[in-house]
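Recall the central idea of this unit: under ordinary conditions, the amino acid sequence of a chain determines the structure it adopts. In this exercise we apply that idea directly, starting from the sequence alone.
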Amino acid sequence: MPRSTDEMMGAKPKNYKKTLSRMVADFRPLLLTFIIVIFILIISAALSVLMPILLGNLVNDFASFITYDISTGLFAIEWKGLMWQFAIMMIFYVGSAVLMWLADWIVVKISADYAYNIRETIKSKLDRMPLSYFDKHTYGEILSRGTNDVDNISRNLSTIVNQTVLGVALFIGVIIAMFVTSWQLALVAIAILPFTILFTVLIAVNSQKEFKKYRGELGKLNSIIEENYSGFKVVKLFNKEGDALANFEKTNISMSKADRKSQWLSGFIFPTMRFINNLGFIGVSVVGGFLDNIGNMVSFFLFLQIFQQPFQQIGQISSIIQSVLASGERIYTLLDEMEMEADAEDAIDSEDAIRGDIAFDQVDFSYSPDKPLITNFNLAVNAGDSIAIVGPTGAGKTTIVNLIMRFYEVNKGRILLDGIDIKNYKRSTLRGAIGMVLQDTWLFSGSIRENIRYGRNDATDEEIGDAAKQAHADHFISTLPGGYDFVLNEDGTNISQGQRQLITIARAIVSRPKILILDEATSSVDTRTEVAIQDAMNKMMKGRTSFIIAHRLSTIKNAKVIIVMQKGQIVEIGNHQELLAKNGFYADLYNAQFSGRNPLAPVEVEQ
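Accordingly, the structure predicted from this sequence is:
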């Protein structure tokens, strides 16, 4: 399951310095842009700091805008001068806001460009990754790195840059402005600084622990909900509703407690800052009263408000930075993974001359170094031959076709296509010459026509229709609303499993492959449809090198050669009749499908 933003916010990077240096390096080409942003934010902060000074001067000079006419006994206000002062203050306020908006707009643009580029980089990286990587990592984990982690960095970059730069600029600017305005009042205001730092850090650290606990429990709760609803039928079948509810309530209560405690602790920050700030107000009022300067007191009241802002944001910024670095570390971990061996520069890039002769020459392969699977495997297949591969689960049947497709590289030996090592073909050329129908169907959200055409982009509508007819899919397609334009859901869940398999068979037919691989291609269709598809397959396999992996041995009786595998080795080879006559492992497998006996079980001997 993809990680939620809440989960990521609670994560910590393992190597803080390394991740930070790499992220800085990523943004180094934009250094000039960041300098411009920093400059804009400093000007915005300066305008914000100057506002209290202007207001204080206005208060001190307010009396100069009022005159008293003794002859009439009336007061007169010099509106022009007073309005000019207000106009300057308004310009400063608006200017500061506009500059902050401009800085935010620039950083958001940088963030969006970064997200676009890093997604392109991740997509290109995944295209170069070996299949073994996807065997070791869940799709949700990979998806999370390419979406949630990238979005987490993109969304929070502007917050980190703007609030950090603006906070530092305001803090330094306010201190300078306070000492310039009145060093006595400045000392009073700074006297509350140690208390501000102490309480902010204490509250932020303790509340952050509870926030992380809350986010962890939230992740567990999301996982429980997903599992219960994705396995809803299983929960009902085994009457586990009570256990599921109890598990949900336990996690929900724990999450609620952590949420209340975290909110309660974090809620202390604002009132604590207000309390300390009010102490500053009192100190400034007392000392300012002795100094008899109302304008300076007004300025310092505003200075104290600005002075507290950076400290109120410390906890939030710290959590965001931690989260962004954790996301960056996960992305870099993916980008540092080993890639597939690149195609040779002089690799063959044309399918035209491929005939389909395939030979395994002393091939060794294992998915894990400590678990040997295929050792010293030798096999020669002539172009146009149909080769069936049978054997128990884990015998290495699917591994053979995975090696032919170069989904995995052999540990030792060679696989030859028309006498040439398959490593001397471009992967795109090799795979373009092979049509494959898997037991696990894969369809995407789109029309049936688009899904079939996925086998060959330049296939005409007529060719698509012919392929569907050969796969015995045309009849059910014509009954759907819109026919070939009927839109499938993701994974084709709005049609049956058998119908999905028929479409994948049509997709393989329209690709016009030189070599055909069928991995349990009829496992999800009924017996009657299977017979019809088998007939279509027999026609399709004529003139093509074909590999058929099947557990239903009745479907491979007509194969020219049947290879029986066990523990990565060929234990028997021959056609259907020859293997039955040997009365060996194949005969046991074949007879077991009709007698129900386990061919791997020990034979009972009468005493």
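The chain has two domains: 5-69+76-335, 348-433+551-594.
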